[in-house]
Amino acid sequence: MPAAxxxxxxxxxFLNPTDHVAISFWIVSIAMVASxxxxxxxxxxxxxxxxxxxxxxALVTLIAGVHYFYMREYWVQLQASPIVYRYIDWSLTVPxxxxxxxxxxxAVKPDIGSGMFFxxxxxxxxxxxxxxxxxxxxxxxxxxxxxxxxxxGFILFEIFxxxxxxTSGDLSPAVASSYNLMRFIVSIGWSIYPLGYFFGYLLGQVxxxxxxxxxNLADFVNKIWFCLAIWNxxxxxxxxxxxxxxxxxxxxRV
Length: 254
Ligand SMILES: *C/C=C(C)/C=C/C=C(C)/C=C/C1=C(C)CCCC1(C)C
Known about the structure:
The structure is a single chain. By secondary structure, the protein is mainly α. 79% of the residues lie in helices and 0% in strands. It contains nine helices and no strands. It has helices spanning 20-42, 48-78, 83-108, 115-135, 141-160, 163-167, 173-189, 192-204, 209-253. Helix 1 (20-42) runs parallel beside helix 9 and helix 2 packs antiparallel against helix 9 (209-253). The radius of gyration is 21 Å and the shape is flat. Retinal is lined by residues 90, 93-94, 127-128, 131, 145, 148-149, 152, 190, 193-194, 197, 219, 222-223.
């Protein structure tokens, strides 16, 4: 049997096969790059009012991908949480995802007001600002957590009981199912972050590894899957519209 490959003691910043957190940073970076290309390419073949949604989705994964390259490097070099990069990434990509809620509703209901978007934005700012202040130890970590939770609660209220939820009653089946999947992601998928903060940071504080592993997994699910939900609605609606045009032109010919 060949001897197990020995790992050099100084890897010069390359991946250490025993550093699972670093490997998870790497995998998520590549998944974000691939998703970006995918959403950009797909945006050329969906109906006109869906293009913006897919392009915004590509921006979400592009911004995350760039931050992931830096976060991997930070982790590999310092073995500590890249808090600043992490929160800059979130504060750009989460508002873009809130825009996605607005766009998906607007694609089917052009007269929807922007008030809904601003309420979602206020919730987002509150959630992330206080999460950051708590994690960076600028304010008490528990207070940061509590106020951050309230911001998230505000978002959940808007999409489950507020104006956004009322608008969603008039959606086509494809859009409605994607909207429901997006709601599921924002409630269940997003719950991974405060759970990570609570168990990995508030209670744990042993090492930064579990917290970062959890955040990386959560980003993978909540960015890529979220955008795939939109892509699915766009594709289904576009195909249905094409069939309708096909049928109409057949009727014309006979
Ligand atoms: C792409 C990045 C996403 C979807 C990030 C979402 C982040 C959260 C839902 C963070 C939530 C938090 C709370 C609800 C309480 C305070 C601590 C946070 C910031 C981790």
